[in-house]
Design brief:
alpha+beta; single chain; four-stranded antiparallel β-sheet
């Protein structure tokens, strides 16, 4: 009976363990680049109706990122944007980013466009590196 119980516990635990993921080095690099882009942007960041500096926003998102890492819930930069950088976990309200005098945009869109630009730059660097 003890062996059957142990087998059952292991059978149930393995799928759960498989769900916990560690991001790849490329994903970790991309998320780091997104943090750098935010910090360098000089944009304001709205969370639950209050505007914060880019550094304050980065600090807040870093805490959410660390939590998601600890829980094994991140496997991509898109996952980071969706789970941490798009909306408040408490209220569900979308975060906003306002750069200069431009109207605010939802932070999910802002981060997605930054990610696309980063990936475009990376592909360009890879192609230039291969052609030499």
């Amino acid at each position: 009976m003890k062996t059957a119980l142990t087998t059952l516990v292991l059978a149930l635990a393995l799928p759960i363990a498989a769900l916990a993921q560690t991001p790849s080095a490329a994903t970790t690099r991309e998320i780091g680049q997104l943090f750098s882009a935010l910090q360098a942007s000089g944009c304001a960041f709205s969370r639950n109706g209050t505007w914060y500096t880019a550094q304050q926003a980065s600090d807040h998102l870093r805490r959410k990122y660390d939590y998601l890492l600890k829980k094994g819930m991140l496997s991509s930069a898109e996952g980071f944007i969706e789970l941490a950088a798009s909306k408040s976990s408490l209220s569900g309200r979308p975060y906003l980013v306002r750069c200069g005098t431009a109207p605010p945009v939802q932070s999910g869109s802002w981060f997605s466009s930054k990610l696309k630009a980063l990936r475009g730059d990376q592909r360009g660097q890879d192609q230039r590196g291969q052609s030499h």
